[in-house]
Design brief:
Layout (H helix, E strand, L loop, with lengths): L2 H8 L9 E3 L8 E7 L2 E8 L2 E2 H6 L13 E6 L10 E6 L3 E4 L6 E3 L4 E8 L5 H10 L5 H13 L1
Parallel strand pairs: 1-8, 2-9
Antiparallel strand pairs: 2-3, 4-8, 5-6, 5-9, 6-7
Length: about 150
């Protein structure tokens, strides 16, 4: 077991009362999160259950290096779970993880297996991207890029 997984295994978080939960029938204390970056496998980690923001903060962020880069976290979970939205957060080097409002009360229960897929949003300014996705999470990367280019070109 890697040092990172051992560190994650020791941490404890609580699921807030009233939170929508992503559940599983497994009875283990940890959840398994597989991380993909633009579709390629990146990491698998065992993390304690808890609020989605804490679970996301315990897995590797995307490999962004420069200010202004922005990535969107898509949550893929078992088909039997419909409690969580697909796009759940925006991540950037300068702001870290910022959940979209639809994901604020999502919790990950013990034993859950889910996949977090990070998608590069091609340098769209992170705060602008977050505000647009907060209002309409169904927007695609191409739609957002077209809207952002209109703003930048003004």
């Amino acid at each position: 077991m890697s040092a990172a997984v051992r560190t994650l295994a020791r941490a404890r978080t609580l699921v807030p009362a009233g939170a929508r939960a992503i559940t599983s029938s497994a009875s283990t204390r940890m959840s398994t999160v597989t991380v993909q970056v633009d579709g390629a496998a990146h990491e698998t980690a065992s993390v304690p259950p808890g609020p989605l923001a804490e679970v996301l903060s315990r897995v590797s962020p995307p490999p962004a290096q420069e200010a202004g880069e922005s990535w969107v976290a898509h949550l893929e979970h078992p088909a039997s779970v419909s409690a969580a939205p697909t796009k759940v957060a925006v991540w950037s080097p300068e702001h870290g993880i910022r959940l979209l409002p639809t994901a604020n009360d999502v919790a990950v229960n013990a034993g859950t297996e889910l996949t977090v897929r990070w998608s590069d949003f091609m340098g769209i300014e992170p705060q602008w991207l977050h505000s647009r996705l907060a209002n309409n999470p169904a927007l695609t990367r191409d739609q957002l890029l077209a809207k952002y280019m209109k703003v930048v070109m003004m």
